[in-house]
Amino acid sequence: MKIELSFSSSTDEKLIEGRITAKDENYYAHLDITLDFIKDYIPLDDEEEIIVEVSETCEEKAGKICQEQEECSGETVYAKDDICCLGTCSEQEQSSTGKIIGWAMVAVIFVFLVWFFKKKYRGAKKPINLLKIGRKK
What is the pLDDT of residues 117-137, one digit of tens each? Predict the structure, then answer.
């Protein structure tokens, strides 16, 4: 099924990101899009339309649809049911660098607070009362 979309904007420049979703009884597909409206843009004559025709499902293309937390290690192609991975889907490695930096910052703040309170309140001395000392003699 061919779908044509036309866009226009006001004179303001704007960047819009979104997702187009299509559902059928047996199929579900989505397309992430980015629209960049540029003021006074005039297309060049030699620019060609990009047309993606999809008539096969991922299974028919001998591929697999990767889950959100998975990453494709091979080529990706458009299929009728979603973006299809022709390689293997593998779980993305979660980097622990952010956790290490976060805990290091917490430790530094904790050490600073301990040092600050020990330094500031290190056995606060009573003020000297000269009148009391003068009466004793």
Answer: 888 776 666 777 777 777 765
Cα(78)–Cα(58) distance, integer angstroms: 8
Measure the CA–CA gap between 126 and 134, rounded to whole angstroms.
17
DSSP 12: S
Sign of the torsion angle spanned by Cα atoms 77, 83, 87, 93 = positive
How far, in Å, CA of 83 to CA of 76, rounded?
A: 7
DSSP for 23-80 reads E-SS-EEEEEEEEEE-TT----TT---------S-TTTTT-BPPPTTEEESS-EEE-S
Tens-digit pLDDT profile for residues 94-112: 677 888 999 999 999 999 9
Q: Are 19 and 33 in contact (CB under 8 A)?
A: yes
Q: Determine which helix (DSSP H) or strand (DSSP E) holds 107, and give its type and residue range.
A: helix 97-120
